[in-house]
Amino acid sequence: AQTGTGKTAAFLLACFQYLLDNPPDERRKATQPRASMLAPTRELAIQIHKDAEVLGRHTGFKLGLVFGGTGYDQQRKMLEDGIDILIGTPGRLIDYFKQNIFDLNAIQVMVLDEADRMFDLGFIKDIRYLMRRMPKPEQRLGMLFSATLSYRVTELAYEHMNEPELLKVETEQVTADRVVQTVYYPANDEKLPLLIGILRGIEEGRVMVFANTRAATDRVDRTLNANGIHAAAMSGRVPQKKRQTLLRRFHDGEIPVLVATDVAARGLHIPDVTHVINFDLPQDAEDYVHRIGRTARLGAKGEAISFACENYAFHLPEIEEFIGYAIPVEQASAEQMPEIERPPPPPKRDRGRGRGGRRPQGRGRDRRSRGSSAGGDPAPAGQKKRRRRRRKPRTAE
After folding, report:
1. What are phi and psi of 30, to 5 degrees?
2. 98-127 pLDDT, tens per residue?
3. Which of 150, 208, 225, 278 gives 20 to 30 Å between its CA and that of 290?
4. For the chain, what is the radius of gyration of the CA atoms?
5. Against a cut of 0.70, is the pTM above it?
């Protein structure tokens, strides 16, 4: 099913009910979780944990959240103290697993969320590593969720699940009625003025702007703020703590515009996102569906605006074929193309030694000073080092 259809609540409620109906083995240890829920990103794992706390507050289950980038010792202690339901990302889980902090022998429920994204991010080997250390598929409940069902995802399901049943929600039933989609055809140098013009026309709401690269998110963020639009950029370069702060401020309405790469396009449930703007058209048609799925969640309405510029317009036919219809074209008005202030260039980052930075004086390898006299003193400045020619060995006549 596509994003925003309630997949998280579906597998959480199913997991809780299964664990309540099937008590664990009496020999189970505290460091043996009963359920494992794997997510491709930290943000998605955190969101699943928050939803689990709300939906499972009366079940008595101990929840554990594990992800990289922060809280290593705290998460380790939490696992050592014992949990019932383990939620996390594959990398950090494998780290603790190989240290024998916990094991997966008592797993009764296995959930894999955003399976297609696991492939995209290169986590599938980690997923298989963990699944092969759980009880056999016929001895546990397995649930796999994916916004798109590719051949790779189907193969994974049949490899690690016991004759799974397929439930599929068609794309048109999810997005067409509740998301108003439009596309503009700006030139590359018209995209920023058009974006600012559109944002100034939005009186209220939360807006997510998607770009394809970190450099583009930074440029858009700086330009918006230079023109009086409070925005923040979020990409894989942003540290975890700052990323969580940005999401909280966006959720609370302190930041009306969030500029992001696709790292934020999956699994984030931020209520009342009214507009999604594709500053860059995604290069993958599936990512288009994931992006616009940030709005119109759980029955709400939203608007998705895309820029088909010179660099990315050729991806539009693939997107329209994937969703099954042509996106209506909108013409930019004069009010939507204002004169804008250009932000100052960003400060140059000190790349450091070994990455283009200058070597500290006195520590570099100066080839001219490596030659020395018999006494070990360096050759005088300006004097060329004489190269000794090796004589060819004489051959017998």
Report:
1. -65, -30
2. 999 999 999 999 999 988 778 777 788 898
3. 225
4. 28
5. no
